[in-house]
Every structure is written in C-alpha cells, then in structure tokens.
Amino acid sequence: MTPHIRVQSEPFSPGEALEGIGAGAAGVGAIVSFTGIVRDLPGGGLLRMEIEHYPGMTERAIGEIADQAVSRWGLADCLVIHRYGALLPGETIMMVGTAAPHRADAFAAAEFLMDYLKSRAPFWKREVTQEGARWVEALDEDEAALGRW
Amino acid sequence: MTVDVLYFAWLRERIGVPRERIETSAPDVAGLVEELRAREERYALAFSDLSAVRVALDQELATLDAPLAGVREVAFFPPMTGG
Fold this sequence. Notes:
Strand order of the largest sheet of chain B: 2-1-5-3-4
Oligomer: heterodimer
CATH architecture of chain A: Alpha-Beta Complex
Strand content of chain B: 25-35%
CATH superfamily of chain B: Beta-grasp domain
CATH class of chain B: Alpha Beta
Shape of chain B: globular
Number of domains of chain A: 1
CATH architecture of chain B: Roll
Shape of chain A: globular
Largest sheet of chain A: 4 strands, mixed
Largest interface: A-B, 25 and 16 residues
Distance between the termini of chain A: 22 Å
Order of helices and strands of chain A: EHEEHEEEHEEH
Structural class of chain B: alpha+beta
CATH topology of chain A: Aldehyde Oxidoreductase, domain 3
Number of strands of chain A: 8
Helix content of chain A: 25-40%
Distance between the termini of chain B: 36 Å
Largest sheet of chain B: 5 strands, mixed
Number of strands of chain B: 5
Number of helices of chain A: 4
Radius of gyration of chain A: 16 Å
Number of helices of chain B: 3
C-alpha cells in the first residue's frame, strides 16, 4: 500500500485524519496513532514555534521512512502528517497513524516512524520567546534512538 | 559544473540567502565546502564546524566525501529536528 503523507502549514484535526485509516484493508486488527503537540517551555514563555522544511525532500524522506515501516511491519495503512510554519503552544504539530493485523506491529511501526521523523526528515524548529529566537538543537539521544531499529 | 546550493535554518541565516547557483570544479562535497569557505567570511563562519552540518545531494542525505558528478542540487543544513 502507498502511505498517506501530508506536509502542510494548515492546522488539522487528528480525529478526522484518523477516520478511514485501514478502512477497506483486509485483516486489520489494530490502529495506533501518535499526535505531537507544540510544548510550551518549562514555566511558559514560548511565543511560537517556527518550523522550516525542505520542500520536495521532506515529502520524499517521509515517503521513504513510511515505506520502510509498511514493509517491515506489514502495515495495512500508514498516515503521516507534519506541519510547517509558525505554530502556537498547544497546537498540533504532527501525527502518525498505523494500521496492522496486531497491535505490537502497529505500535512498533509508529515508534519507528517517530524516531526517524525526528532526525531524518528535513524539518528545523526555532523557538521564539520574548528574549529572542533560537534554533532547537538536535539531541544525541534522538540520534541514538535510531540504533534500536 | 553548475549546481544549485540551498541552505536551511541557521546556515541560511549566517550565509544570508536561501539558495544560489554556483559554478564549481570541486570533485566532492568537501571540495565545494572549501570553495565556499574561501569566498567570504559569512561562509567561513557558517561552515566553521562541519560536525554540525548535514548535506543532501538531489534531496538524498549524503556525506562530505560524496562525489558531485551529475549532482544538480546540493543542500546544507544543521541536524534535523522534526517530530
């Protein structure tokens, strides 16, 4: 199956996006979804999160990651939505959805997607506060998380 | 050869343009970086720590020793922070 990939600036409803996932596919027994939210800084103060991306490569990189998830865990359906642009704390930034015969595969595929989207999809986050703006730095632990796959 | 060079995030900010067309004779990415560094201070600053720079060739992740032959689009950016 072909994963459903959406890279967009507009807000979306995770509930609506999940409707229909796995529909029509035979043998689906589990649907797992993850929704990422723009988290405020500890103590507050985040005015907005700006997300830059690499149009073209973004869709391509997510597509390759999703294809891997589909074949490795035998997914019946796979959904990835990732936003770019300026987002406020509390806004939905991204989501993944996986449908599989059994829950273990659906969970594992969703975690794999999240780990890879974090450090292999060309997005860059910039936090804006009253004091100024700073690019969010990639964490060693995010890179290390890829090792478990 | 002529390549389109794209910059993202703080590399774009330090260099001051999102993309530019560059004439290069560099055999590989590392050679192109050397040419850019020699151009102006802003490039030297942007590429001062290569451990913090990632590269994609025609929208596929690559490494600094990757050859440039046949490549049309080179992108430089910091480690990605999606999700």
